Amino acid sequence: MTDTQGVASDLIAAVDLGSNSFHMVIAQEFQGEFRTLEKRGQKVQLAAGLDAAGLLSEDAQQRGLDCLREFAQRLQGMDSNRVSVLATNALRAARNRKEFIDRAEEVLGYPIEVIAGREEARLIYLGVAHTLADDAGKRLVVDIGGGSTEFIIGERFEPLALESLHMGCVSYTRRFFPDGRISEERFNDAVAAASQELLNIETHYKQLGWDSAVGSSGTIRAAEQALLVNGWESEGITAAGLKKLRKQMLQYETTDDVALSGVKPERRQVFIGGLAILQAIFDTFGPQRMIYSDGALREGALWDLVGRSTHENVRERTVQAMSERFYADQAQAERVRGTAEAMFRQVQQDWRLDSMSAAFLNWSAQLHEIGLSIAHSGFHKHGAYLLQHADMLGFTRQGQSKLAALVRAHRRKWHEELFLEITPSRRDSAMKLSRLLRLAVILNHSRGVHPVPVPELQAADGSLRMTMPQNWLAEHPLTARDLQEEVALQKNAGFTLEIA
């Protein structure tokens, strides 16, 4: 099946903007599964472009943009709802990430989402779990990236523990081997630092336990390949094999001298930092053997895209859990959600809103009162803070910012400044959703004391006309007053709202 542009409509794609490399995978979906059609990757070393102030250099940005121009050619014409572009630790850390993302989105033609460390861990586990046999028993999954390392304990397709620690092959190579010189003392310092980081999760992970250990990412693949090619192991990575790798790496004077068989040339300069982290993992957790899995973040992103139309939609579970955790009045949330959804259907075409906009409107309606668990005064601000800073599995940083803005703006003053954390390309739709949510909240102010009719809406780009049943406003003067105040608030923000 193809769309009007000749692009197969069953194609899905994931792009991983990693701290060391950018990767793209394109697959064909069929009955809830997918078949990989193409994989591409380029060493970009975004993390190497971060200075002491946390600013991404122009050279690093250009390396990323050059790579994305090539990816864009292959992705051209694909449905944006079937393309997932995820950025990890380097862009989490970069203070000027918005500048790069704005430029990158223009080059790529698709929105770029920055994900939190635990969300990265969840997607990595999803990718790994789908590449392994569906065996019983818990597994420890480790992914050593350029700027962070993710640790997951899971069973089958369900993660039981998710963590992301600030250590990666690029950042550790820069930190402990800044001039490229390799020494035993420097290597031991790197191992000690990584071991110190692991103290944060060691007790909890050992209590959970695991039956097998799996590694993903370039560092672990390179370590396994080096052991196999050199005849030091017949399968996977062991403590004895790591000892031989360490001995070999310490024979090189600098990272430029590394010529280890099995380690690709583009990996050699940062392999020493990754090896130190891997050594610390074996010293701390003591796995008997770690097997490499080709599944990783991008494969997990593909499975997440497939799962969003099935029972596996983790975002729905996250929203429900947040609602319960902060004791939201679910009956009131459902009333607001129902009214907002009915209004959305009337304006969707005129306001050019997609299905994902409908989802965000529903989620914000479900969560708009979670701030009441902290205090009534300014509860919309409290709710926004919780949504901005909580770990919300399934949501990207931008997604959380959008939810936070909708909840922050659902009452009281309303102006564009409340939406500045949302990228310009998505701000217009967020503000339109906010207008609908505000009206739904006002109409349901009585909290179910009396039935609320669905108003008739007529929408143009910046204007909205709302018609209530005859005499309804006269019979509900408090709601009528609230709506007239809303007319003034939206007028101050440059929008027209008419109530009839």
Describe the SSE topology.
Blueprint: E1 11-17, E2 21-30, E3 33-43, H1 58-75, E4 83-87, H2 89-93, H3 97-108, E5 113-114, H4 117-129, E6 138-144, E7 149-155, E8 158-165, H5 169-176, H6 184-208, E9 212-216, H7 218-229, H8 239-249, H9 265-285, E10 290-292, H10 297-307, H11 314-325, H12 330-347, H13 355-367, H14 379-389, H15 397-408, H16 424-443, E11 456-459, E12 463-467, H17 472-475, H18 477-492, E13 496-499
Parallel strand pairs: 1-4, 4-5, 6-9, 9-10, 12-13
Antiparallel strand pairs: 1-2, 2-3, 6-7, 7-8, 11-12
Protein architecture, described:
With 500 residues, this protein is an alpha/beta fold. It has 3 domains: 11-115 and 301-305, Nucleotidyltransferase, domain 5, CATH 3.30.420.40; 132-293, Exopolyphosphatase. Domain 2 (Nucleotidyltransferase, domain 5), CATH 3.30.420.150; 313-451, Hypothetical protein af1432. The chain has helices at residues 58-75, 89-93, 97-108, 117-129, 169-176, 184-208, 218-229, 239-249, 265-285, 297-307, 314-325, 330-347, 355-367, 379-389, 397-408, 424-443, 472-475, 477-492, and strands at residues 11-17, 21-30, 33-43, 83-87, 113-114, 138-144, 149-155, 158-165, 212-216, 290-292, 456-459, 463-467, 496-499. Strands 3-2-1-4-5 form a 5-stranded mixed β-sheet, sandwiched between helices. It has a 5-stranded mixed β-sheet with strand order 8-7-6-9-10, sandwiched between helices. Helix 7 crosses helix 9, helix 12 (330-347) crosses helix 16 and helix 16 (424-443) runs antiparallel to helix 18 (477-492). The mean pLDDT is 92.
